[in-house]
Design goal:
There is one protein chain. 33% of the residues lie in helices and 44% in strands. By secondary structure, it is an alpha+beta fold. It has a single domain, classed as STM4215-like (2-Layer Sandwich). Strands 1-2-3-5-4 form a 5-stranded mixed sheet. The longest helix is centred in the middle third of the chain and has 17 residues. It is elongated.
């Protein structure tokens, strides 16, 4: 089995490369400044592959993009989408990730901070 923390660290690294914004693997705190991306694991499912010791992981993460304007927030999201689309093969080779999907996208404005809530689902074999 592959530790989920390894997957989270790789995901944070890829989000950092795509957005060039600070990534926090936790919820936003009162002292945090935007722009910021927060990431939390939403849920996971692990299933064995037949009689082997390999597992199929299905992981869901909540990614929140926090920014000072809706335009900037959406530009960051576009960079992330493009990065994940352009690197599908590398993600599969480097991490074993496949079937990467962005689902459940919601835009919010809260006290002058613009937020996009994204659910990212990925599968991997390990």
């Amino acid at each position: 089995m592959k530790p989920i923390t390894d997957v989270l660290e790789a995901l944070i690294d890829e989000l950092q490369k795509a957005s060039e914004i600070r990534i926090k693997p936790a919820w936003i705190s009162p002292g945090d400044r935007v722009p910021l991306i927060t990431i939390l694991m939403h849920d996971s499912e692990l299933r064995p592959i037949d009689m082997s010791q390999m597992m199929i992981y299905e992981l869901r993460f909540q990614i929140d993009i926090w920014h000072t304007s809706a335009k900037d927030r959406d530009e960051v999201f576009d960079k992330i989408l493009n990065h994940f689309e352009e690197n599908k093969q590398r993600f599969h080779q480097d991490y074993g990730w496949f079937d990467i999907r962005f689902t459940g996208i919601t835009d919010l404005e809260e006290e002058g901070v613009f937020r996009k809530i994204i659910t990212l689902r990925l599968r991997m074999v390990a």
